[in-house]
């Protein structure tokens, strides 16, 4: 493959992950800088991808620790892997937390209900509880769906670096790097 083909494939793979239920790149690991300066990583579900806009999104709870972290340091790194085809896609970039506006409302309305239940919990993600079931045994009824909207946000990621690694055979690998400068992507091969 040429560098141009790899670049196109990265975006094609990510776009396919949004559409397909069982795609390995649907779940990405997202790393932030913790409030203590150390790294923090967790799984997020890829929700939208646009090469034209240089944009990816995931959804999260405004109360979750990652929002405090991204509010302080908006840079993020994401990695996904397809273990069957031995492909790794890494990226880093800048985030923007979308707390208001029509795009957020559209994202909320187009999400399946079972996803939205998590935003209706009275306890913020990460709140210490005495027993695993305490998160569900709440003394008051679970708030209605619109209550969940208060906690819902879209995180936009605008990548500035992309990194493709493919293990073609046991002894042959290909690694390509793409660095965004202004509106263009500089591309080169790097040692795996
Ligand atoms: C399969 C799976 C998918 C997940 N998707 C998301 C997601 O899209 N957004 C999200 O905020 N958390 C998601 N989580 C939970 C996070 O990995 C994490 O535990 C939670 O968001 C709290 O992270 P934080 O404490 O770093 O803010 C997912 C977890 C799993 C296991």
From TrEMBL:
Pfam families named in the record: Pyridox_oxase_2 (PF12766)
Known cofactor(s): FMN
Entry annotated with the keyword Hydrolase: no
InterPro entries in UniProt: Pyridox_Oxase, Pyridox_Oxase_Alr4036_FMN-bd, Split_barrel_FMN-bd
Residue ranges annotated for the Pyridoxamine 5'-phosphate oxidase Alr4036 family FMN-binding domain, each copy included: 14-98
Keywords for this protein: Flavoprotein, FMN, Oxidoreductase
Protein name: Pyridoxamine 5'-phosphate oxidase family protein
Alphabetical list of Gene3D superfamilies matching this protein: Electron Transport, Fmn-binding Protein, Chain A (2.30.110.10)
Native organism taxonomy: Bacteria, Pseudomonadati, Pseudomonadota, Betaproteobacteria, Burkholderiales
Superkingdom, taxonomy of origin: Bacteria
Keyword Kinase: no
């Amino acid at each position: 493959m040429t560098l141009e083909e790899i670049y196109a494939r990265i975006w094609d793979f990510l776009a396919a992950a949004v559409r397909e239920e069982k795609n390995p790149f649907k779940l990405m690991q997202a790393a932030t800088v913790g409030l203590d300066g150390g790294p923090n990583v967790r799984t997020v579900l890829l929700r939208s991808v646009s090469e034209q806009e240089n944009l990816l999104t995931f959804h999260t709870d405004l109360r979750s620790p990652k929002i405090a972290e991204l509010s302080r340091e908006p840079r993020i790194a994401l990695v996904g892997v397809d273990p069957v085809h031995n492909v790794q896609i890494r990226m880093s970039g800048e985030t923007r937390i979308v707390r208001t506006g029509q795009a957020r409302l559209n994202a909320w309305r187009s999400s399946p209900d079972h996803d939205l239940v998590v935003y209706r919990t009275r306890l913020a993600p990460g709140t210490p509880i005495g027993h695993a079931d305490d998160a569900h045994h709440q003394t008051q009824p679970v708030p209605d769906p619109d209550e969940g909207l208060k906690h819902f946000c879209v995180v936009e990621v605008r990548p500035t670096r992309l990194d493709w690694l493919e293990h073609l055979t046991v002894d042959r690998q290909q690694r390509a790097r793409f660095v965004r400068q202004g509106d263009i992507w500089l591309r080169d091969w790097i040692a795996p």
